[in-house]
Design a protein that fits this description.
Helix content: 10-25%
Largest sheet: 5 strands, antiparallel
Structural class: alpha+beta
Number of strands: 5
Strand content: 15-25%
Strand order of the largest sheet: 1-2-3-5-4
Order of helices and strands: HEEEHEE
């Protein structure tokens, strides 16, 4: 989608620190990390929200988040995955993405 920063990252029009990529998703280090580890997992196809996503892509995003948590060493102590949907929940980019956060203690409830 024109103007979508995540689409522009997928198209290599915007630089990003890519930590994983396959045919369907890309994972990048967040440029404004909220934890020592903060990775965004993004479908390559423009999908506005979780409500617009297929079960297959959601499964792939969540599964890969778990795999990346192991790879970057945050799996044993724990990590958080977050999917925001629309502005009241904090979705600032209208392109589905999963936040993988770890490397510190998190409080509950989160908001």
């Amino acid at each position: 989608m024109i103007g979508c920063v995540f689409c522009r990252i997928v198209e290599r029009k915007v630089k990003a620190d890519i930590v994983y990529e396959d045919d369907d998703i890309i994972a990048i280090n967040d440029i404004n990390p909220q934890a020592p580890t903060h990775i965004l997992l993004i479908p390559k196809k423009h999908i506005p929200t979780i409500e617009d996503a297929s079960p297959e892509i959601m499964g792939k995003l969540i599964n890969q988040a778990g795999q990346l948590a192991k790879k970057v060493g945050i799996s044993q102590k724990g990590y958080r995955t977050v999917i925001n949907c629309r502005e009241h929940a904090g979705q600032s980019i209208n392109h589905l993405h999963v936040h993988l956060l770890g490397g510190r203690w998190f409080s509950w409830p989160p908001g």
